[in-house]
Model the fold of this input.
Amino acid sequence: MESSSLLTVVLVGAFLWISAIHADSKDDGKVLCTCENDKGTCVNGTCKGDICFYSWVRGHEERGCFSKVYYMEQCFSKVDRLFMHCCKEYLCNTFTTPPPNINGDPTTTPPELSRPELWITLSLLLLITTASMCGLVLFLRFRRAHGLRNDVHGDRDVTMLKVPDGDDPTYGDIFDEFCTSGSGTGLPYLVQRTMARQISLVQCVGKGRYGEVWRGTWMGESVAVKIFSSRDEQSWFRETEIYNTVQLRHDNILGFIASDMTSKNSSTQLWLVTHFHELGSLYDFLQYSSLEPESCLRMCLSVACGLVHLHTEIVSSQEKPAIAHRDLKSRNILVKRNGQCCIADLGLAVIHSQSHDYLDVGNNPRVGTKRYMAPEVLDETIRMDVFESYKQTDIWALGLVFWEISRRTIVNGIVEEYCPPFFDMVPLDPSFEEMKKVVCVDQHKPSLHNRLHSHPILSAIAKIMKECWYQSPPARLTALRVRKTLSKLDHDSDFSTEKLKSDI
Done:
């Protein structure tokens, strides 16, 4: 872990040094640039920044300025059909135009470096490469030793998450072109800034207190466009911040493509563009679909896998802090074509890094969904300064989601109609006090149908639910323990099925 931190410091320091080489030499470090865009950042056709730029993306021209911290990301972009010119002189981007071959090979034109700067940059790159290799070797040796200690001392709630292969057939071509494997930060910044102009909205597929979700088309593919209402601006900022700063690419987390701000009908719209799943939310899916026990198990397992990935801090060269969802429910889980699920809506998420010793709860005034609130949230005894407290509330909600799925699972020819948790105890839109009385005062739990105990898979899932609903938060299961139990159940189920086939 120390070598990883040292490597991070070296990389950041080297990047700032390279950026400083290209910084403006004037007293305020800023240069006046021509500004032509629809983001509302221009003042009388100009702006001041460290770097002036002219960009041409698929026929759309834009001029403006940006901070030197974005120099490497923007001036050296390799996006197809993008021309990018960066300079640092007074109004130097005023008369820039794309070269004649812009419709052919990708072309980028960063500012030319003088020979001393070139040699300094090359030397720094060599230093960074050497430091990276040393840091990687030390990190892998540490991980291996740490893993061996875990094997010796027994099962612990620590996991090395696998890097997802990102093989979603709908978006494979797009992400092969624009995103590196394992990245959770969507498309390059410049492409994200033009997304709203490239997407055609086709059909509204959902509405809620946050705004609307539309199916749109981009580059011939379907995408989901979540348009936030102005009163939920903080949720858009929070989701954008989380997706752009942590490694969230995982099969069971909704895939992020871009975030953009656009103007429609003289008003500002906040867009979050993600993968599109035509089966909709788990809540919608359970209204019209029933499941076999094996499908129920794999659906529950996929939700648990997604929650484990959120809850787990990954310490590496590309770090991921631990994240608590805080609004886990069937409406915030989407169903994929393969029958698995992915978790969405991170607008209320809490971020924690043990290695860097920080807890970021955000400043969103919105609260979670009352029906899914844990007892300590309802009676306001939750420890707001302890990250584990937020994870434990996610586990309470996870048990309720499992309950919703199990109701729609056929056992002995019996299946129940869909109902939300506590449907028989509180009204359709319960108040905070009504939920508090049921969950905290009366300590009720959702009822479990007798048929669940007659099937080994459903009986095991019912046991997990009960262990997610302990009144005492520390007594509840962890997401990792839920996932391991369901994984073993899934393995045993596969083995039993294969054995049955061989006997036949």
Remarks:
- The CA atoms of residues 6 and 135 lie 8 Å apart.
